[in-house]
Amino acid sequence: MAARARRSARVSRWAAATATAAATATATAAALAAGLTLAVTAPPASASDARPAATGPAGVQARAAAIATASTGHVLWSRDLNTEVPMASITKVMTALVVIRAGHLSRRITVPAAVTGYVEEHDASSAGLRPGDTLTASQLLEALLLPSGADAAYTLAEAYGPGLSAFIATMNATAKLLGMTRTHFSNFDGLPYPTGYSTYSTPANLLKLGRVAMTSAVFRSIVDRRSYRLASGSGHHAYFWVNLNPLLGVYRGAIGIKTGYTPAAGHCLLFEVTRGGRSFIGVNLDSPGVGTTVNGADATRMLNWAFSLRGR
Description:
Elements: H1 2-33, E1 64-69, E2 75-79, H2 91-102, E3 108-110, H3 114-122, E4 134-136, H4 137-145, H5 150-160, H6 164-177, H7 203-213, H8 217-223, E5 227-230, E6 239-242, E7 254-262, E8 266-275, E9 278-287, H9 297-308
Antiparallel strand pairs: 1-2, 1-9, 3-4, 5-6, 7-8, 8-9
């Protein structure tokens, strides 16, 4: 009950602050989104969102999914392409994008004491950050994207908002300017609060987000990394983070990008693979799986099918 009361109080404070932050966030997001918009093109309007099994990958069990040519955004196959569903920690792709586009990645940021209680309250994935440690924004991006640290997301949002509500407002304003019209962020990490469906997107919108993020050399270099070791140094402890992406090192040519899981969202994966001069980007949302560790089964089925196509 106490945790619920704290959560309700926090949500109320954020809601009140968001209205004040919205105008500033829109202006900031306009600068961040300038030159970033990339199209995602679906099959002709007469085609069904749920493509016939004979013309698409067999055995995909995700509630919503899509795979596209990475260079053009042309959707090769989809299921519920424009259906709004929760996407869990895929949210952190937008968190990273806002930080990267804001710049100053060498700035030193102190991990706030509040991250410990935040992670415990929401039973969130964590990079194990120690309150009081000081890391660069670049290092915190590693902690955000590899082990999917909600503590890193909190730390970056607080620093770059500045303040949590301002950062969330910038995320939503950026989504709007990128044309992600069926996406909403209620927080900076994809955790299921105020409800499991408060943060949501669609396969089409997430393909767009993924393509935009992958134009950043900084982002690409992080999500392609299988692990990251940070030796102890002045102002911080030693850390070692492993990338949770189940395709890296397993599916030939995998280069990113982000996993996600909550009970409401199921197993989620936004992915990109490049090999033999061909690149595909895809997403599966609410795939079945055991436990909280995201598997690559649906992504593998979609990729195998895409690579079997000629001239794509």
